[in-house]
Amino acid sequence: MTKEANQLEAPGDSRVVAGWAGRLYEDFSVGDIYYHPFGKTVTEADNHSFTLMTQNVAKTHVDRNFANATEFGLPLVNSTLTLALVTGQSTIDLSMNVFANMGWDEVRMPNPVFEGDTIYSRSKVLALRESKSRSNLGLVTVATEGFNQDGKIVLTYRRTFMVYRQGHLPSVDSTRPDEASLPLVEDFQ
What is the pTM of this model? Predict the structure, then answer.
């Protein structure tokens, strides 16, 4: 997108600059690798809340005394929390304009995640194809890896999702307040 196409008129010396709106099908290329920009340190509260919210009764997630008696010696982070976190981290680069997730395949967790670990993620585009039943959509298949602060891979999976094609993303009409209510630009010269 050109600089001019990314700007809208605003009063005075100001301009409205469109924010990141996500990728559409045509923006992907097989072989692309995205290092997703956000990391997350998983807290004890995250682990307990997610585990209890999903009615997971595994003691190793919420009973520190029990977890101390295991070979890990620490509570393990709920594996489906790790899957949800890494999927969420990838959304900004992959599926912000998703129509539907088609599935997660080959989910593997080669190393444990502990409370206090910071999780990062990356994805590689493996395959693209136009939808046979919906001309406004395309299918994207990626391999995603979650890794901790030490660079250890803690999660791998393949995911296929349907994403809108250019010119077919639903638009949302909303009323914005006039920019005139914002303060004037200050001159620090």
Answer: 0.85
